[in-house]
Sequence to fold (297 residues):
Amino acid sequence: MTALHPRLVLLVVLIVALLGACAGVPERSDALRQAEQAVALAEGNPAVSRHAPVELARAQETLQQAEQARQADADTNEIDHLAYLARRQAQTAEAVAREAAAAETAVRTAEQRRRLITENREQEAALARAEARRQREMAERAQAELRDARARLQDMAPRQTDRGLVLTLGSFLFATDSAELRPSAAASLDKLATFLREHPRQRAIIEGHTDATGPDQYNLELSQRRARAVVRALSQRGIDPHRLRAIGYGKDHPVADNSSVEGRSQNRRVELVLSEEPTMRDTRAGAPRGGQTGPRG
Fold:
């Protein structure tokens, strides 16, 4: 029988040894595979690397111990126990990272909320300053217009009230029991029209009033007709009717005692309430019983 070459013998021995070694390493258990997946998932999570590096390192170390035990053909229970610990440690790292990320989000949200509150307060303060400036400018304009009105419309007794600048046109505008303007009223109406043209921001509520003589309904209708007559007269003098509103109050708001001739004469009047309000509304307490905007008929 022919002897084998020494090198060939050595190669055969090495192959047999390697095959024996491979056959001796046990397969990965389900527990070990689950641990590897858990650790890999934690390693791929940037939040874990940032917030839970210690916990991740502990899981990696335990997983390495489990793999070493498998390579050494250790007891299956020992390998699975180490794999269980590695999986739980990886899950702990994930939980720590989630809590830390949530805390960071809460801090950012609180900071954003504080910043928004600060910005809102600054905006509110700026709006308050702007409103105060606007009110101051309006008050200054009102005072300037009051001075102008007192200088130019003295015969209408201009006075500043909480309703606005009030001008009074006495009974000289109309004949008794009439809503037709007297020719002598033209000069006063011309002054009013000039004043309104020179103060285009002003709007006027024209209020008609009567004394207490006669039926209430008749007096109401008469006061309405007189107020509308003044609106028409101002409109004819170039004042935009949308700036004017006619209201009749009848006998409801006397300024003097109706028991005397002089008092009744004072109560028969037309008042103009001037203001810069963008929309005109009734300026007296209690709803009037009749009114309209602009001239109609």
Q: What stands out?
A: The longest helix spans residues 76-152. The chain has a mean pLDDT of 84. Strands lie at 159-161, 164-169, 203-209, 244-248, 269-275, 291-293. The chain has two domains: 24-143, 153-293.
